[in-house]
Specification:
Elements lengths: L1 E5 L16 E20 L3 E15 L8 E12 L4 E9 L3 E4 L5 E12 L4 E13 L4 E10 L3 E22 L2 E2 L5 E19 L1
Parallel strand pairs: 1-9
Antiparallel strand pairs: 2-3, 2-12, 3-4, 4-5, 5-7, 6-7, 7-8, 8-10, 9-10, 10-11, 10-12
Length: about 200
């Protein structure tokens, strides 16, 4: 079983404690093909991370009849310790154009996300244009990761086929590509069953 703990990267570069405050949880069940990308940078002044996930078919847990649909999520976080500036936001899109081949050799995601910036209290538009290129061999296994920031924790669990991938492209807000020159980690998957859970601490 492959397990990853992600805080902007596949190996946690920063550690954040979870405050004991009110939280909301959103959870999806999914199957079929999916892609994950994490972008990150840490130095003496700055901590930046962003992640993007995309699914060909997912169903939100909750009351009412479930409806399977494509879904994509985007989250970013930046803290400049030297200048005291901070930004953080999240957006989700059921309409982005996500394609992935059956061999898990490549994928692409293009779309516009309405992102709520928690620091400024305003909504912004993010343009996402990413590609994934599979590297190495494909393995059949159970896979899980946890992505943690001061406000969010995301848990992903899946049973199926997986392949590491190189992720590249742009995530643009206010004319700035947030992932330019950042390190990255990516993966492609074809899941028989899985869950994606996002916990938001208020």
């Amino acid at each position: 079983m492959k397990t990853a703990i992600v805080a902007g990267t596949i190996v946690a570069a920063l550690s954040f404690s979870l405050p004991a405050v009110a939280a909301t949880t959103t959870k999806y069940q999914f199957k079929g093909q999916n892609a994950f990308a994490s972008f990150y940078q840490y130095d003496e002044c700055n901590s930046t991370s962003a992640y993007v996930t995309a699914f060909t078919s997912r169903v939100k847990d909750g009351p009412g009849a479930p409806t399977a649909q494509m879904g994509a999520d985007f989250y970013y976080y930046n803290y400049d310790y030297c200048n005291g500036t901070y930004s953080e936001g999240y957006g989700s899109s059921p309409d982005a154009n996500f394609t992935i081949d059956n061999q898990l050799s490549s994928a692409s995601l293009n779309g516009t996300f309405i992102v709520y910036d928690y620091w400024s209290g305003t909504s912004k538009t993010a343009s996402v244009a990413l590609t994934w290129t599979g590297v190495g061999s494909t393995s059949n296994d159970k896979y899980s990761y946890t992505y943690q920031t001061p406000r969010y924790m995301t848990r992903y669990r899946s049973n199926g086929s997986f392949r590491e991938a190189q992720a590249a492209g742009s995530v643009t807000i206010d004319g700035i590509n947030l992932i330019e020159n950042l390190s990255s980690y990516g993966s492609l998957g074809s899941s028989r069953s899985g869950s994606f859970e996002r916990i938001t601490r208020r």
